[in-house]
Task: structure prediction
Amino acid sequence: MIYLDNSATTRPYKEVIDSFNKVSQAFFANPSSIHYLGGEVEQLLQKAKMQAAELLHVGHNELIFTSGGTESNNLAIKGIALQHQNRGKHIITSQVEHPSVLEACAALETIGFEVTYLPVTKYGRVNPSDLESAIRPDTILISIMHVNNEIGVIQPIEEIANIAQKYPKVFFHVDYVQGLGKIPLSLNHPGIDLCSMSSHKIHGLKGTGILYIKSGTVLFPILHGGGQQSSIRPGTENVAGQVAMVKALRITLEQQHEYKRLVQLNKLLRSFLLQEEKVVINSPEDGAAHILNFSVPGYKPEVIIHALGKRDIFISTKSACSSKHSDESAVLAACGLNTARTHSGLRISLSYENTEEEIRQFYQAFKDVLAELQNVMG
Ligand SMILES: Cc1ncc(COP(=O)(O)O)c(C=O)c1O
Result:
């Protein structure tokens, strides 16, 4: 099997599964129980949070364990909006955010918030000066992703954080789900207030994630309950899942030097794809090395995906995005690409487990698939 769909999800590390199994069996008590067993589990959970904080260079009381990127994004956006609405009801985001950001913003629009969806360049980049011009006296939140999940464009987060810092009433949230473990981001930048992360994109387990909340930032919780995690995210903690996530985080960050190899694999992939007349590359050259998006205009992406799947090679098409046309990529459309390209986008996404040999085998299979489809189409 050649797995090239790592931005959809990654294969969990063996150590992660071992850790999940061990904690589930040996530390099954409820961390809120006041007896000895509960205390042990609470300690384990706190230790995991401290380790995550150390790895991310933030305070342990600045981290909230969540059920993943979607929840972290919703908690950040709705939490800020609901808590600070007396200051203003305007939010700034971009047209190429993940649906968990776009839909959270759309939901807030239905209850009286106003949202500016910033346009992007043809490579999906937000222009920081557009962003600054969009800030109004009633703006309370900016939410911009770090690495785009479809095309891999890296947004100018530091520049945006510098702008956000000049407006003390405006919070800045970063969706770091696709960048974590690949491209460093300093959460200590004074302009960054909130940051979302998800475990299953870094070889952890699905249904676990982190929201970084800068100390002093107050959120209105989206869940109410038993007071766990300072009542910001109540509910009995997924102890085994979170401990396993911290293991995944540690292993991924230890492997970050391997990113250089992904840059080489990306170059090789590009050079192969550029040999194909029918292919147009949609990802920017200076984008994240682990995501390469390209179109084969005139060819249905799902047909290519299934044909590759039969050869045990797995790539993907656009994520389930909120596009007007169900088979169009909203991200490629926001980049202003023509409909032939927006309807035929394919994404290859790498992890540190992928090898050069796999890229070569993919290309051979891809060429065979194109030739086969060409014959069928006459
Ligand atoms: C950029 C981005 N944000 C958020 C999410 C949602 O994360 P999760 O699957 O953990 O809910 C994803 C998942 O694809 C993503 O790519």
